[in-house]
Amino acid sequence: MLLKDLKQIFHKELDAIYGEDEVRSFFFMLTENYFNVSRLDLAMQPNLALTTSEHPKIMEALSLLKTEFPIQYILKETEFYGFPFKVTKSTLIPRSETEELVTWVSETIKGLEISNNKLNLLDIGTGSGCIAISLAKILPGLKAVALDVSKEALVVAKENAVINKVDVQFVQANILETHSGLFPETLDVIVSNPPYVRELEKKEMKPNVLNNEPHLALFVDDDNALQFYKAIIEFAKLHLKDNGFLFFEINEYLGQEMKALLQENNFTDIELRKDIFGRDRMIKGVKK
Ligand code: GLN
């Protein structure tokens, strides 16, 4: 089959779901990834054809896209902060809001390691490892440790550290349980993007997220929505140095509650920030 004919099939089957531009970009992501054929290649060689062995693979991707299965899970990779990341159904697909959190953390702590040797950072609920690994890429003076409850996610995160050639230490643990002794060193920075979506917000979620991304990484009980933040704050009281930083990605509807929670726990220099969509999305506090 000619690639240009296959492209027409993609448009016919998928434009109503995604829109023409997105379908074009999916098509070329697949042809580049599977067959090393770019948009330019097809423009210059309009009669490029698929072999019979290539055909089933791309047709399978088409049928998955029809069910709104995320392209990142089909390709098993994505980009975060300009770096390549492997993703599977055991990890969330990293969000652009989380890139904004990474920028905030790196701008706050860059330079601090000069007076302080290496900075110790812990990422709690690392998933694909995107926060810890990107920060380790940007800040060579960082000693990053990343924790997750999911063994499957940690397999992916470890691969991502290798792919990105950074040295991050990974630990399997549940932050809701106690961990005295697990982190003997005092930490300079704790960062976390824990689960924070309430059942009542499920109806706002897109089916591609709801049906495919790991619920373990997304959802909390309506009546205990700050459960992870509370546990991490208790952990920070034990393991964060005085003047150490705590950064969270947060539920956009719980900004004021998060501010109050950090205040109650005597954190200072509390700052709530919005993401580029204008939603309360991240918060910082300093331990005193
Ligand atoms: N922002 C993500 C979403 O809306 C949720 C991330 C999280 O729960 N930590 O899908």
UniProtKB/TrEMBL annotation:
PROSITE patterns, alphabetized: N6_MTASE
Alphabetized InterPro entries for the sequence: DNA_methylase_N6_adenine_CS (IPR002052), HemK-like (IPR004556), N5-glutamine_MTase (IPR050320), RF_methyltr_PrmC (IPR019874), SAM-dependent_MTases_sf (IPR029063), Small_mtfrase_dom (IPR007848)
Enzyme class: transferase
GO biological processes: methylation
UniProt entry tagged with the keyword Transferase: yes
EC number, as in UniProt: 2.1.1.297
Superkingdom, taxonomy of origin: Bacteria
Gene Ontology molecular functions: nucleic acid binding; peptide chain release factor N(5)-glutamine methyltransferase activity
Keywords: Methyltransferase, S-adenosyl-L-methionine, Transferase
Catalytic activity: L-glutaminyl-[peptide chain release factor] + S-adenosyl-L-methionine = N(5)-methyl-L-glutaminyl-[peptide chain release factor] + S-adenosyl-L-homocysteine + H(+)
Domain (Methyltransferase small): residue spans on this chain: 117-202
Identification of the protein by name: peptide chain release factor N(5)-glutamine methyltransferase
Organism annotation: Bizionia paragorgiae
